[in-house]
Amino acid sequence: MSDDVRWMAQALALAQQAELQGEVPVGAIIVRDGEILGEGWNKPIMSHDPTAHAEIQALRAACQQENNYRLPGATLYVTLEPCVMCAGALIHARIERIVFAATEPKTGAAGSCFDIFNNDKLNHRIICDSGVLATQSGELLRNFFRARR
């Protein structure tokens, strides 16, 4: 199993935690040199905080662990393409690479709606890879929304 698949599988387990709490099932994990720096899952509903996306939760945990607001050399694994808010935070944190599972055609900032990570007007670029366990992530999201309708 590749490292990308291994870490994304862990992010999917975190997404299931979000679902158990009634949140949109998105999970994220930040890794550097084979070590988990931070992890998180969606919590905006339960925390009454629109910024409590999985990526932001993972960033906060990683930055606390590292005692630094910058995370050079780190990779974020997330089960859904990041939104513009999360993309901005990831750029400010100097994340090196993002691997996401499912695309988000309505709000995705890694190529679906916007391509924030490759914008030449910004001072930092992030390498993006997509599609790792996309089927599993997409199925989890579809089942969640189907059950809520």
Folded structure, characterized:
It is a single chain. This protein has one domain: Cytidine Deaminase, domain 2. The protein has five helices and five strands. It has helices spanning 3-20, 44-47, 54-66, 84-92, 134-148, and strands at 27-32, 35-41, 75-80, 97-102, 127-130. A hairpin with a 2-residue loop joins strand 1 (27-32) and strand 2 (35-41). The longest helix has 18 residues, at 3-20. The radius of gyration is 14 Å and the shape is globular. The model has no long low-confidence stretch (mean pLDDT 97).
Portion in helices: 25-40%
Tell me the number of strands.
5
Report the span from N to C terminus: 36 Å
The biggest sheet amounts to: 5 strands, mixed
SSE pattern: HEEHHEHEEH
Proper CATH architecture: 3-Layer(aba) Sandwich
Shape: globular
Helical region count? 5
- Compute the number of structural domains: 1
Summing up helix and strand content along with how strands pair, one would put the structural category as alpha/beta
CATH structural fold name: Cytidine Deaminase, domain 2
- Which CATH class? Alpha Beta
The portion of residues forming beta strands comes to 15-25%
Give the C-alpha Rg. 14 Å
Tell me the CATH superfamily: Cytidine Deaminase, domain 2
Determine the mean pLDDT: 97
